Structures are given as C-alpha cells and as structure tokens.
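#lab-general

N.A. 3:47 PM
ok so I finally got the sequence cleaned up, no stray characters, all 347 residues accounted for. can someone with queue access submit it? mine expired

B.Y. 3:52 PM
send it over

N.A. 3:53 PM
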Amino acid sequence: MIVIGTVLNILSPRYYWGDYLLGAAVVVTGALLSLRHTFTAAATIVLVQLVLLIKDGYFGHVIGTLSLISAVFTALVGLGVNRVVASHSRRLEVVRSVAEAVQRAVLPAPPARVGPLAIAAVYKTAQIEALIGGDAYAVQETPYGTRLLIADVRGKGLGAVGTVSVLLGSFREAADQAADLVVLAERVERALVKEASSREESVRMEGFVTAVLGEIPPGADRVQLLNCGHPSPYLLKGDTVSSLDPGEPSLPLGMSSLGVPRAEPERWPFPTGATLLLVTDGVTEARGRCGTFYEPVSRLGGRGPFRQPDEVVEVLIRDVERWTDGPRDDDMAILAITRCAGVLDGP
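B.Y. 4:20 PM
back already:
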C-alpha cells in the first residue's frame, strides 16, 4: 500500500491521490503488526511525504505544511491503534490464562493408567477463544472397580461450568460409596437438583445433564454402562467398531421430577486389546458439508487396530475436523479406555 501510494503521488504531483493509501497503510500496520513495524511504516509515510513536498516545491507553503501535519497525525493514529490493540491482546491473554486455570481445576485430566486400563481424554471447544464449556469426564478407582463418567451439561458459559463442578464433585464423592451405578446416578442427580434449586425457574425446568456412567470390575473382562440420555459409547476391537446402544435408556440426570424409574445398567464384553470410546454430542452431531451427522462406526471402522487410547483420540479428532471442514457448532469431549494385555488388576 505504501509503494502504490507513493507511485500514485509521484505520478500526480498536483494532487496527491496516494495519500489515502499511505494513511490506510500505517493504520492497518498498527492493527495487525508489531510496534516496530508500525513505527517503520509511520516513519516511512512521513519521510515519503516530506521528500515529495520538497521535490514538488510545496515545502514551506501552507498546502505543504498542512500535508505534512496530516501525515504526522496519521502516523500517530497508527501508533495509537497499535497500542490499543496490544493492550486488548494482553488483557485477552490474562483472561485466557485464567480460563485455562479454571478449566484444569474444574476438569482435571484423568489418570493415564488405572490397573490394566490405559486412559486418554481430551476436551475441544467449538471456538478456540472459549476454553470453558459444559462437557465433562472423569475416571476414578473405587472399591467396586474403575468407575467412569462422561456428561454434557445443557447450556453454556459460567452457568454450565458451575453445574459441571457440582457434577464432578458429587461423582467423585459418591463413586467410592454407591453400591451400584443406579445409586451413583441417584446421588449425582440429587446434588444437581439441589444446585439448580437456587436458580431461576426457567433454568430449573429446562436444566438437565446427559451422561453415561460406567463401571469396570477388577479382574473382569466386561463393563457395566448406565446411559442417561447420552450418545452411545463405542467398542473398538481390531478394525471393527460397534455401538453400545442401551436397550432401555434412562432419562437425563436432573429430570427425576417426572417420576420415571431409572433403567438398570447393562453389561458389555470388554476384552483385552479393546478400547471403550465415550464421546459427547459435539462428535456425533458434527455436520459435514452436506449437513449429515458424523458417524463413528463407519468413519473409524477399518482403521484399527488401535494399541493405545491416545491413538483413538488423535484419529477421531482429525477425522471430525476433516468431516466438518470448518468450525464446529458444539464442544466435544472424548474419553478412551483401552484394556491392555499383560497387566494384572490390583497391587
């Protein structure tokens, strides 16, 4: 822009038609580049203006003085824009660092290994600027075996984060005490209902949490799952992928007021070398170019065998991003658990 503006001014010595490009150049530089680049652009346009005024005989005249003052003022505007943008960038960086700290505190990474189970998890927000959302996961070793949770809180923002905090806190406390998954779900639900009681009526009436609760007993090659209105988990064995659809899904957590009894957990085989994959609807409702939803069974089938859970997570993330070919509409949480060979349960 500076080069083109300078050429235009040289070709039109009576009217400097390139001044608009010179002024725009320094403002754009101030908004997009560093202070050093902005200062260089500002000094360049002032120097160009001064040289042209001397060359064309305007220096010292009223028109020349006003043109030079205009160039200096434009340069100062560009520098001011740069400082304002830099200030907002620093404040945004502080906000991002706080958001990351909150996210780590509310949703810590699960252990990488629990007995024979290798674990990998990832949380991906729909927008890179938003680091906090309403998806959650947890894995905990208990007297009843390894218990796990993946959930999706209705809503976004700080309200959803507060619900996630209550959800995970109640799960961690009840997972060690509840005799089975139904009792565990009821205790978590009571905590959620109590937390929602202090909110507005619209939030209480519409707030709910979809979730899958799981239990992998020690020394057993099976997994128990209680699906509370959540997308079905998947079992990856070799190069095959199967959906663990519940025969009778339960209502989401937080809807106990409807009086519908909760379904019983279902048992599924979980052999050595297999990977249990749990996702939120940010994966299953990711839309492709034609508006079709992402289907893990067909998309991941034939890509195995996967030896570690982080391999499954990486392949799934890349494939979802390739499928959407752009920004997603929802956050997605992924939890993958692989039963490794040659590792015994217990100490």
